From TrEMBL:
The keyword Transmembrane helix applies. Belongs to the 3-hydroxyacyl-CoA dehydrogenase family. Residues 191-259 form the 3-hydroxyacyl-CoA dehydrogenase C-terminal domain. This is L-carnitine dehydrogenase. Its EC number is 1.1.1.108. The keyword Membrane applies. InterPro entries: 3-OHacyl-CoA_DH_CS (IPR006180), 3-OHacyl-CoA_DH_NAD-bd (IPR006176), 3HC_DH_C (IPR006108), 6-PGluconate_DH-like_C_sf (IPR008927), 6PGD_dom2 (IPR013328), NAD(P)-bd_dom_sf (IPR036291). PANTHER family: 3-HYDROXYACYL-COA DEHYDROGENASE FAMILY PROTEIN, LAMBDA-CRYSTALLIN HOMOLOG. The gene is lcdH_2. It comes from Paraburkholderia ultramafica.
């Protein structure tokens, strides 16, 4: 959908995430300038952007012609040119503190005072690479996307302790305008939310292979054909809430001790205290009163049926 007010994005880094962000912003009607220090990446970027847009068109996920959207992306030869007049500068450089520190110092000088300076960092918090003496550090934050963001729309907004609240609000508004779903992470921590959740599953998966419990393929099957199916329509808290009559409080009472023992096997001691369960329960009951529980379970089942139908039809069409 075209933005009513034309926004301008500067992208620093022409790798896979930088290319993906160019698609996101251009698809939303933004004017985009993309810079990469490597001439080869600058030369390859236009074709890669167009190819992704054409794939979106093929699946009915683009409202305009691919070449029209691609025309909104300008490849520029300098960082200053990418940052000029930008509402938002998206840094997509390698995950190295020294690189990000140097880039943000340059961006703070080059970008207009109103621009948000955001890093696509997957693990590094803003405080790790922003100098205390940087004049514009109050507008700096992490905006960590799902990959690729034009298909996985969540973007984690992670402010540093020194990030201005107004910058956080503006960043959330800008990413929403670009068609993404911002999630505010309340404090800095390595890996943020996305990779901590993903990491928890990966750590256990590696342990299960190491301990001879299951094969790599079988673990992928469990996630793909079970956990992943549910999580594509509801999250882990709602899954637990809907899996046990009486909701998540009943689930915690019945299943909590087993989960605690499984954690203890891995040397982990993070008990679901009564206070923590009460906090989670209150959030779920605010979202779904218990008198609506059965209706939501029926909705979940219909959503899974639609997904099963789509997968069945996809297999038939591919064969």
């Amino acid at each position: 959908m075209r933005a009513q007010v034309t926004r301008r994005a500067g992208i620093v880094g022409g790798g896979s995430i930088g290319i993906a962000f160019a698609v996101v912003f251009a698809r939303a009607g933004w004017q985009v300038r993309l810079f990469d220090p490597a001439a080869e990446r600058r030369e390859l970027a236009p074709a890669e952007i167009l190819q992704r847009l054409e794939e979106l068109t093929r699946f009915g996920l683009l409202e305009e012609a691919a070449n029209v959207v691609a025309a909104r992306v300008e490849i520029v030869a300098t960082l200053d040119a990418a940052a000029a007049n930008a509402d938002l500068v998206q840094e997509c450089a390698p995950e190295r503190e020294e690189i990000k520190r140097e880039l943000f110092a340059q961006l703070d000088r080059a970008a207009p005072a109103y621009a948000i300076l955001a890093s696509a960092s997957s693990f590094l918090a803003t405080s790790r690479f922003i100098d205390d003496t940087m004049p514009g550090r109050g507008r700096c934050l992490v905006a960590h996307p799902g990959n690729p963001p034009y298909l996985i729309p969540v973007v984690e907004i992670v402010p540093a302790p020194f990030t201005d609240d107004g910058a956080v609000t503006r960043a959330i508004d800008l990413y929403t305008d670009a068609g993404l779903k911002p999630v505010r992470v309340m404090r800095e921590l390595e890996g943020f939310v996305f990779n901590r959740l993903q990491g928890a599953l990966l750590r256990e998966a590696y342990c299960l292979v190491r301990d001879g419990v299951a094969s790599v393929d079988d673990i992928d099957t469990v996630v793909r054909e079970a956990l992943g199916l549910r999580w594509s329509v509801i999250g882990p808290f709602e899954t637990a809430d809907l899996n046990t009559r009486g909701g998540i409080a009943s689930h915690a009472q019945k299943m909590g001790p087993s989960y605690a023992r499984m954690g203890a096997e891995r040397g982990q001691h993070d008990p679901w205290t009564p206070e923590l369960v009460a906090e989670v329960t209150a959030a779920r009951r605010s979202a779904l009163p218990l008198d609506q529980w059965e209706a939501r379970v029926a909705w979940r089942d219909r959503a899974l049926m639609k997904l099963a139908q789509y997968r069945k039809e996809s297999v038939s069409n591919d064969s």
